Fold these 3 entries.
Entry 1:
Amino acid sequence: MSVPYIGRFAPSPTGPLHAGSLVAALASYLDARVYGGQWLVRIEDVDEGRSVPGAAEGALDLLVKLGMHWDGEVLWQSRRGDAYQQAFERLGALAYPCGCNRREIADSRLGLAPDGSAIYPGTCRNGLAPGKLPRSLRLRVPDRGDDEITFIDRFAGPITQQLALDAGDFVLKRGDGYWAYQLAVVVDDAAQGVTDVVRGADLIDSTARQIYLQRKLGVPTPRYLHVPVVRNALGEKLSKQTGATAIVAADEPAALLALMAAARVLGLQGLGTPVSREAFWRAAVPAWSRLVRERGADLPSVVHV
Ligand code: GLU
């Protein structure tokens, strides 16, 4: 018997998939296969301003070429505005309009949250100052002392974050009118019944905010596993901004090269030298199974299928 498992890969189509995105895709795919679960794909194009035309289609095409087949329909965040609005309304008085611009928040000198966003000092918590116009919508977090959220990351173990200190009241809808990533991801993970989030460690600092939102919306908290982030020679996380090169899988050798590189980042052992994609997948699924067991990251009450 296996536990119910729904995993997902949720790329933002801000550019072509690169080595870093493939690591997250591979880990989430392998985890779903090991536990006999479903693997969903969600295109996180909520920030339509940053979405690059054709990037989502390119990512889906690449997944197929690599032999990563998803279950069900692809979910597109750009079509989910009504669901985000409804979730926002359920938050009631916990959400409030904020009239601060970036400079005002930076000037408060509370510094940066671990994910690089400025910590909000709570200026508009008790109402907009006269003359200030609403720009964004924020979610009130508990005051210091009551703001701790602890979760177990399947690789890193217990992680505690303090919402007031590490993030402050965070944005649900941005000044430019787009729903924020934190709200969209929580609403969609819940709507898709996701039980297992496997993604890059750059998002570990967002997890406490997402768990807080899940609690406020009354939706379940999935299990979390954060995998290593790929960095370039300068130590920067691979991204379009840092000039990451697009993965190409035009033929079998190129596909295998990309898959093996991602497998190395994950530390998969015993893959040998697969001669085809099929051979890669045959070796990679048990290799991931061994890795999660060795790292104590197995799911409860699971029989390997
Ligand atoms: N869309 C995010 C990204 O491409 C991933 C979000 C998530 O997995 O929660 O980095």
Entry 2:
Amino acid sequence: MYDLPLLISFLWMGTAGILASQNRAEDTKLASQAGNDSSANHKPAKETIWASSLARAALLSLPFIGFWALEISQAPPEVRQFRILVTLGAVLPLGSLAFLRHELLDRERLRLLRASQESIDNLKRLQMQFVQSEKLASIGQLVGGAAHEINNPLTAILGYSELLAEDLSLGEKTRGLAEKIREQARRTKTLVNNLLSFARQVPSEQRSPVDINTIVNTSAQFRRFDLRGKNIRIEVQTGAGVPEVRADMNQLLQVFSNIINNAVYAMQEAGGGTLTVRTLFEKGNVVILFSDTGPGLRDPRLVFDPFYTTKPVGKGTGLGLSICYGLIQDQGGQISCYNRPEGGATFRIELPAVPSAFPFSPRSVVSPSRNNPAKIA
Ligand code: ADP
């Protein structure tokens, strides 16, 4: 008679396993239907609680059954011995099942923990992008209006000072003064142009597929001319098979030159160094990395803010990288910067590659149209 409930219980254990796997499939389906609705009330199913309580009770009952068979039962010694053996034998599968369950639960918890950490990181990044974009947009509006107003009288000052400076009927001293006015007016005009391009009121040229490696090489070449004797090197490591990007070539040249100029300035202050420019293809984006061996960024969170500069008066306006930020944003890309642990600053630009230009290899068929990239600072 003892064998009958034993057999039923073993059969039930098997059935419970099958039912559990079916429940799990249903749970997964429900979870995917609920999507990301965090307000959904995920209460554990009643059956799950019952099943785990029964399993725990079964495991805990084993020593009692063993003790009963050994000390209390009046059955013949062979039967008692058989029962003890069965009880001991049951410890192994039940114990292993309990361990397995714990292991699976641990893994699931770890996976959920990682997923929620990732969500929090994404949320923080989005928040930063939003704040940065809003800040730039509102300052851009203000600055754009003011720059427009200044531009008109400035053009007149520049024009009249040019007339005076070239008027030979005037004395040498007067023409000298006119020349000085013209120089200052030109400087102001450059600043106003910077302000206008920061406010993005300078229309962008036609976009077309461009080769990033060529633009990187050209920007580096421009700057190499006046680096002789300055103990500063610019190394370009272009990645093979980097696809084209759809962009305005002149704007990219402006961005790259600005980053290179900043790096050269920083390394010059430190007595020399090397700027390494690398291009590579990663997850459907063309990535350009500018890493210098200078002193690093004083505050990486502020470098894209308009008018943030650590350069002395007259040397920097603090608009260069804010303009770059806007330009890269316009091209559908993202720009970020950080200090490397070993020293020096790195600027990273990501631009979406032209889909048709992806190199045809299985590895490159990864998320070509990544949802429009985050524009982060
Ligand atoms: P500006 O060059 O007129 O100061 P930018 O917007 O181009 O304006 O740069 C803002 C600031 O970012 C710089 O003043 C400097 O403090 C910092 N910066 C940019 N690039 C680097 C770099 N490679 N190393 C250290 N600091 C840098």
Entry 3:
Amino acid sequence: MSERKPMIAGNWKMNLTLEQSTSLVKTIVKECGRLKGVEVLVAPPFTALSTIKEAIGDSGILLAAQNMHWELEGAYTGEISPKMLVEAGCSHVILGHSERRNLFFETNDTINLKTEAAISTGLVPIVCIGETLDQREQGQTSEVIREQLEGSLKNLLERKNLPLSTILAYEPVWAIGTGKTATPDQAQEVHQFIRHWLDENFGSRAARAIRILYGGSVKPGNIRELMSMPDIDGALVGGASLKAHSFLPIIRFQEN
Ligand code: 13P
């Protein structure tokens, strides 16, 4: 039995009104609060964090932001600091999502600073990595993944110290929002590569404990098969996390 508890995380991206997100989270709390075998997390937009925190109450559902700045405060117009996320009730933060990398020019260097800042502020980082279709077709997947891991975790790597609560998310860019899921074997192959990399760089304890989520067109119909793979520890769900009718069965994948 794996020591890693499965996590199902919903990344709502720039979607849902306050009313819609409150109603969705209330349904999740009612149907899936306090589930034993799975951790459930939601990542609403910044403006909904405090409201969703209140709706979550003591149900055990976890709250994440989708991004943050690496400084704790200062003259950074338009940015949100890790301290502010803690104040809003977040325990986790998604960092380096491919939409941030590709559309907002985030680099491994800034993701490294953010990862470090998240950890020192007491937030659990969910660090995203993943190759494009072009990179996969050129046979560069492992190289790209290794580069992203080395760059995004650079400071931690230098200190050889990765908190065991850290979460990694493998999201092949070509599978995000496209309806094209990586096959369970394709995803497992990369997850296994990441786990070996963790073993080589942070030791076997870290490799055994750190969860690696899969993201990219996860749906009620493919979650079970993905979760049957030994190195897939959960899912980071986009589109299907926006509606209770698709998110709840994903959370309850063990029961189907
Ligand atoms: P989709 O589930 O919509 O493909 O999005 C995946 C994702 O980007 C989660 O972070």
